[in-house]
Batch of 2 targets.
Target 1
Amino acid sequence: MNNRHKALELRLQKMTYQEIADQIGISRQRVHQILTGYRPPRWWENKKAYKKRHSKTDVGKSQNRQYQRRYRNNIKILVLTHYGNGKLRCCKCGFKDIRALSIDHIEGGGGKHKISMKLKSDGFYRWLVANKYPEGYQTLCMNCQWIKRHENNELHKISDNCA
């Protein structure tokens, strides 16, 4: 939990700024800035200049990739947990490894739906969050998805008599 969440939680417990500062280990003034969302004047200009300078270096590019990876992974965890009935696992078999978990359209036709929306893989997760988690989806592991596709004859490109 970051300082903002800690400060908000402690403020809801009717603690003073000084008590919060002592507990978190930051200044009372910084607690006030965190809770009120204060930004110094023209902070965006400094941020833009820093990003422009930093994004051209190898370290900056690497840090940006890591940040984007964490951001996408957090959204994926959020969505999979929601559609996994509050748990990060397959709805059918209980498999827990996030590398093999994905969203399944309960009624089928997920590929056509994604193509019609023209979204990339992580864009679909963001779309689900932005649309307030619409009904008709579930979290399944890839084994359960392939079994479901086979049972529902959704395998269009693969025939049963392949060598």
Note: The radius of gyration is 23 Å.
Target 2
Amino acid sequence: MLALFFKSCFTKLEAQKAKGKIMRCTQATLEALNIFGECPTYGTGVIEALKKHKKEFRVVEDHAKTLRSFVRENEIGSFYLTVAGHAIACVNGTLTDTTERGADCRRVLAVIQIIEPYVSN
């Protein structure tokens, strides 16, 4: 059961490491959310990058307390998460985490949900 929970979430990071390209957690997180060429080094820089790339977003006030519970509760959607001193993306239940620790008990401090436009078939 827990194996489903700890999905392999490092494919993009593994590919970058194979190319010898290591990046900051903020940049890796934004790239997982399809925002390229940005690496803010200050708090509001992420919001500015989202606006610059015309991404619709909302700050989630009521969110899970740990990464493990957040992934369990959010299998669909794109999220920018912060934990102590670190940024992580969660896209459809898969984490992009440069520490490669996965969905553990780190406390989620802030959540920004990226609102994807609805596309009808």
Note: Residues 1-19 have pLDDT under 50 and may be disordered.
